[in-house]
Amino acid sequence: MRSDVNRRDLIKRAAAVGLLAAPAAGLLSACASSGSGNDKGTDKGEKSKENPFGVANDAPLDVVIFKGGYGDAYAIEFEKIYKKKFSGSKVSHLGTQEITGKLQPRFNAGNPPDVVDDSGAQQIKLDVLYKSGQLTDLTPLLDAPYIDDPSKKIRDVLQPGTIETGSFDDGKMYQLSYIYTVWGLWYSGKLFKEKGWTAPKTWADFMSLCEEIKKSGIAPFTHQGKYPYYINIVVMDLIAKHGGPDLVKRIDDMDATVWDDPAAKAAVEAVYQIADKGYLLPGTNGMTHIESQTAWNEGKAAFIPCGSWLENEQLKATPSDFEMTFLPIPSLDGDKLPFEAIRAGAGEPFIVPKKAKNQAGGLEFLRIMLTKEASSKFAQTANSLTVLKDGVGSDVQLRPGTASTVTALTAAGTNVFNYNYINTQSAFDTDVQNASAELMAKRIKPADWLKRVKAAAEKAKKGS
């Protein structure tokens, strides 16, 4: 999710090459040295069943939203719901892509907002915030009543993996990853119908189709070259599907031996062939996410990797008859997971800073987000799903791309996987991204990529 600067997520997901290290280090030292600030917040009201956190009716609420692929209109709708409940509250709203630039000084001064959607290329890294004691433990949120059915707790109505994605070394959840994202390849249904192309299920068929597409005068593939997070969707999903869930866990655990595994070698060599055979749209490696995605919308390239925020991010650039369609990463020979297996899970991290003045209001805002009313509004305004189970009403009309992800999730069944190292090992993630940028530019070979990533895992393991 991103816009003119870039986005997440993922997740969390996107980071410009080399952009992360310096701001993160500066924040860590600054946060560690920052002194005053009330960890519990200063604005408190009476607790009750309807007001489990004790939000004061007249306490201001300060909300900062990453204005990327999902926009921030949905958050304004959430704020309206909050205002109905706490009529005396003045809600301030900032939608921005400059999360670090706008918020690092506030964290350093002990005066952070009450709620932050901490995403994008300028995300303040969550592991840095966690290690410097800047995040509120969200366990009270998980144990709070679900507004739509108070007999249930919030933890009971979340999609599987949501709590784990938001948890750190101590086993507690510190971020609410609100959006249920699906990652993979995307293509135009209209273009494929016109050309008589069939979406491939195997990597061999994918490469054969790429050759056919190239001969037609269209580039087979583009990616968001300046932000190698995106090409890693293909690399890391191929590894997961070829090596199975155990390999995913070992990668998250910074087990450096995983990079000697044949699955890793096969995946990296497969992706390298896209560049080596000339299947990339010319100029791809220097493109921003918007530039490459718009070129794809214009029919200059057939495939692009992305998360399911793509449809909303590209609304203005997508022709009405484009038929945006999701495709799981095609299978290598001998995969342990089926073609239908996909990477999916909770993304777009929302946090309540530990030194938030209205910490109770921040927690209540997150609880309001986890209602069917809010979840449906998100689906309508941001064209994506949330982590609330059955969170979209039957009256909500989904766009083609989003609908295709629902179909893919249904087909995947239990064959769903996800990585968490992007949250917990941001320095390693940056190293992997940098290596992939070099790989796609053909400045290094697959064997070099594996050596670099193995060394990065060893370094991360020593530092954990």
UniProtKB/TrEMBL annotation:
UniProt keyword Signal, yes or no: yes
One family name in Pfam for this protein: SBP_bac_1
Keyword Transport (UniProt): yes
PROSITE patterns documented for this protein: PROKAR_LIPOPROTEIN, TAT
Keywords tagged on the record: Signal, Transport
Biased composition (Basic and acidic residues): 40-50
Record field: transmembrane: none
Xref: Gene3D superfamilies: Periplasmic binding protein-like II
Similarity comment text for this entry: Belongs to the bacterial solute-binding protein 1 family.
Protein's name according to its UniProt entry: N-acetylglucosamine transport system substrate-binding protein
